[in-house]
Specification:
The protein is mostly helical. The chain has helices at residues 2-9, 17-29, 33-42, 48-60, 64-73, 79-91, 95-104, 110-122, 126-135, 141-153, 157-166, 172-185, 188-197, 203-215, 219-227, 234-246, 250-259, 265-277, 281-290, 296-308, 312-321, 327-334, 339-348, 354-366, 370-379, 385-397, 401-410, 416-428, 432-441, 447-459, 463-472, 478-490, 494-507, 512-525, 528-542, 548-560, 564-573, 580-593, 596-605, 611-620.
Length: 630
């Protein structure tokens, strides 16, 4: 190190306290922690600057325990030392420790107040952040920006806008904070308006605007905007990588990844998550295994990927193998655990943020424990829109329509998710007329809105309404098509179901549910050849292995058409153990054809005969048939 050579060349009497301090700072700022510690022990005297530089170096290296030990050894820490220790705890998420340091400080300045405010905000506790903000003796621009960022980072757009308009002065950081708030909401029009009005831009501004396009799913706009960048950095490239990953465009995500000059944890994690999100867990695991280094960001990405796919066993293995867990690690695991185990983990967590509370609330909701969910919501330090929507969803899913309506009416803010959930609640509780009226009054609708009312119309047997709604839909997905085909099949409109399925194959790739619905339509319409063609096409043309449901539907189709021998052969060759449903289909066909031999086989298969099977059996041995054949 050049600085050390200069230091060693100096005559010892020429080395004053500043010289020693500067040499120590050279070690700490360049990451030479071991050398810094050895040099510190050789120093003739230690100033507060030296002590502070050393404990900050340990903190930057991730050793917060040793950092605190060194801090406690300082004979008389000054304001900078106190504030530095506070910032260390705040930035690493140790809210309770930061709060204790803040309380012990003999004096505080604006940096201390602002650091404490940011610590609460980072933990999702905006109420305490606001109390700190209100207690600051004299607000300066960084204090205003800290409060603005607190609201922005926690998704409180309206509060962020209010603070922004109250500020006596703004700077580039202020503009970036409000731009980021719009960006996080995916509010492209306001984000673009804000971006265009800014007197100057930096990479943070460009990246925030890019993220707004990406979060809103405007990939083409994001691509065009990205092309206008005079320069790009790792953040902007990662933003595009994440955008394509979340959109399921693995090829484009891989192209961006391969074109990057270097990668960080976010890059590796985003590509890993792209694979996992699209069902390529093997590729995700392969990428995870070949990363040249492991850190908590990468571990969390693999953990989250497994969580997204519901792979609880794999997630547990990753979680147990991790050397270090942070808040994101625990939040990812919470959503996978059984409700009581999740609550135990929740209670043991040293830190929680808004996401933690919302995940636990959602776990209760998914388990149908709405009373526990309501108690938890009442205990929460604050409620975000996600909180309200989770509680609304819990009531809606369990049929508590009045409670769902009450939550909806009391929500301070609502979005399309809120309106869709309430629409689902009306449908779930059989209030179809009210659901239809609410749907008609919605100023904004998305695919979820249309699919919900389409499914409700299908459930109530309103074929004409289903056809009308389906034709009016601005966009459709597999759920829309499957609902449409199912409605036609239930109404014995086999021809309409056939046409719908063939149109579907031209626009989407059918899934196993689509094939099952088509086979049901074939069964009702007596279209044996069409059913056979569909059944064989699943594996041959689409690479999908028929499930028990497909075999069962095919047996039913053949049996209804009187092809008892074919149905029996398929029953004996299917890769599953035949069950009562398949035998009942065969038994019914044998009864119609008075095929006592095959009927006897079917009856033996239905060992535990229910009332339906007994009726079919009695039809088989109606007057004129001999029961001695059984």
């Amino acid at each position: 190190m050049h600085a050390r050579r200069v230091f060693d060349s100096m005559d010892p009497p020429a080395r004053d306290s500043m010289t020693w301090d500067l040499m120590l700072l050279a070690y700490t700022r360049n990451g030479y922690l071991l050398e810094a510690k050895q040099f510190f022990s050789q120093m003739p005297q230690h100033s507060v600057v030296c002590w502070t530089a050393l404990f900050i170096a340990y903190a930057h290296n991730g050793n917060l325990k040793e950092s605190k030990v060194i801090f406690d050894e300082i004979p008389q820490p000054d304001l900078v030392a106190w504030t530095s220790m506070l910032v260390i705890y705040a930035q690493n998420g140790y809210l309770s420790k930061a709060r204790k340091i803040f309380a012990r400080m003999p004096q505080k300045d604006l940096v201390s107040w602002t650091a404490m405010l940011a610590a609460y905000a980072r933990n999702g506790n905006l109420r305490e952040s606001k109390l700190i903000f209100d207690d600051i003796p004299e607000l300066d621009l960084p204090s205003w920006n800290a409060m603005l960022s607190a609201y922005s980072q926690n998704g409180h757009l309206e509060d962020a806008k209010r603070i922004f308009h109250m500020m006596p002065a703004t700077n580039l950081s202020s503009c970036n904070a409000i731009l980021s708030a719009y960006s996080q909401e995916g509010d492209v029009p306001n984000a673009k308006r804000c971006f265009d009005k800014m007197p100057q831009h930096c990479m943070v501004s460009w990246n925030a605007m890019l993220a707004a396009y990406a979060r809103a799913g405007h990939l083409e706009d994001a691509r065009i905007f990205f092309a206008t960048f005079h320069e790009t950095d790792l953040v902007s490239r990662n933003t595009m990588l994440v955008a394509f990953s979340q959109a399921g465009n693995i090829q484009e995500a891989k192209r961006i990844f391969d074109d990057m000059p270097f990668w960080d944890s976010v890059s590796w994690s985003s590509m890993l998550f792209a694979y996992a999100l699209n069902g390529h867990l093997d590729n995700a695991k392969e990428m995870y295994d070949r990363v040249p280094y492991r850190d908590v960001v990468l571990d969390n990405s693999m953990l989250s990927a497994l969580a997204q796919r519901g792979n609880a066993a794999g997630a547990r293995r990753i979680f147990k193998s991790m050397q270090y867990h942070n808040l994101l690690s625990y939040n990812a695991m919470l959503c996978l655990l059984p409700v009581d185990e999740a609550r135990t983990m929740f209670d043991r967590m040293a830190r929680r943020n808004q996401v933690t509370w919302n995940v636990m609330l959602n776990v209760y909701g998914q388990a149908g424990r709405v009373e526990d969910a309501k108690i938890l919501m009442d205990e929460m330090p604050q409620h975000s829109l996600v909180t309200w929507n989770s509680m609304l969803t819990a009531y809606a899913a369990t049929g508590h329509l009045e409670s769902a309506k009450s939550v909806f009416e009391n929500m301070p803010h609502r979005d399309l998710i809120s309106r869709n959930v309430l629409l689902s609640a009306f449908c779930h509780c059989g209030e179809f007329a009210s659901a239809k009226a609410r749907f008609d009054l919605m100023e904004e609708r998305n695919l979820k809105s249309w699919n919900t009312i389409l499914a409700a119309s299908a459930f109530h047997g309103q074929r004409e309404k289903v056809v009308s709604l389906f034709q009016r839909m601005p966009e459709r997905d597999l759920v829309s098509w499957s609902t449409f085909i199912a409605a036609l099949a239930r109404n014995l409109d086999a021809a309409g179901a056939f046409q719908g399925f063939h149109t579907l194959m031209l626009t989407e790739e059918p899934d196993d549910s689509s094939f099952a619905l088509f086979l049901v339509a074939c069964s009702h319409g007596g279209s044996v050849e069409a059913g056979k063609s569909c059944f064989h096409s699943m594996e041959r043309d689409f690479g999908q292995n028929p499930t028990r449901q497909h075999y069962s539907s095919m047996v039913d189709l053949l049996a209804r058409a009187g092809s008892v021998a074919d149905a029996t052969n398929l029953l004996s060759s299917m890769p599953f153990e035949p069950e009562g449903l398949e035998f009942r289909s065969l038994l019914g066909a044998c009864g119609r054809d008075r095929d006592l031999e095959q009927g006897g086989v079917a009856a033996k298969g239905a060992v535990d005969l229910d009332s339906t099977s007994l009726l079919l059996l009695s039809n088989l041995y109606a007057p004129g048939a001999s029961s001695s054949r059984l």
